[in-house]
Amino acid sequence: MQLIDGKLISEQIKAEIAKEVKLIKEVGGKIPHLAAILVGNDGASETYVAHKVKDCEQVGFTSTLLRFDASITEEMLITEIKKVNANSDIDGLIVQLPIPKHISEAKIIETIDPAKDVDGFHPINMGRMVIGLPSYISATPAGIIELLRRYKIQTAGKNCVVIGRSNIVGKPISNLLAQKSDVGDATVTMCHSRTQNLEEICLRADIIIAALGKPEFVTAAMVKEGAVVIDVGITRLTSDKTKNGFKLVGDVKFNEVAPKCSFITPVPGGVGPMTRVSLLQNTLLSAKKAIYC
Fold first, then answer.
1. Residues 218 and 265 in one domain
2. Does residue 119 carry a catalytic annotation?
3. SS3 256
4. pLDDT tens by residue, 113-126
């Protein structure tokens, strides 16, 4: 069994990005600029955005954090997004989710200029991805693909089971793995809450991607010997065995599943760091006008 070290790979990629940004600076080129909008004061969102700002500093990007009170109206937030869309110095824009319930998440996502949608959530980017056109791929699926690529994990002709059908992870990663590409050509089965005989389906899988948000849902009984397991989930559980009183677990029961695997991602330290670095990669592409021009 080999651990897939997302933290290590993400640091390698950040070093590669920082090197490219240094070269851009030397020739007087456009420094990538990422803007983040944070609505309210959700603790997890505060942490995520702080990490993203720090990542930008680490690779030499410019970053802007725009904070708004949770009481902001949908119309006012849309107006602020349009201001960022019109700002030619800003290359990428993310609106940290979740947002307050009185604001339509779909409307907010669709307001973001697809050329600055470095989260890859806009329907135009999603649609372009599905038909194989250049697009900003949402960060978690992009990170998973990069891990498979860098660990040279064979996907062509393999049976891949994706557990979860979210627009952010399940649907895009299913599509990407089925596409004709260097990390693709897999036979993909996307499972969800209505799937019957899930254990039987998983036992046939060469690759399992667990992205359903249920802690330790995937057990050893669902995994065949030698399978590759990618754990996307992360849940905070209370624990009397840690100093801070909680522990982070994934969608996979790691201790019993890991011995059966050829490769497996840990939680934390697996897919999570790759999600953040994929956002940087998309922002760099935007600054270089590599997707839209």
1. yes
2. yes
3. helix
4. 999 999 999 999 99
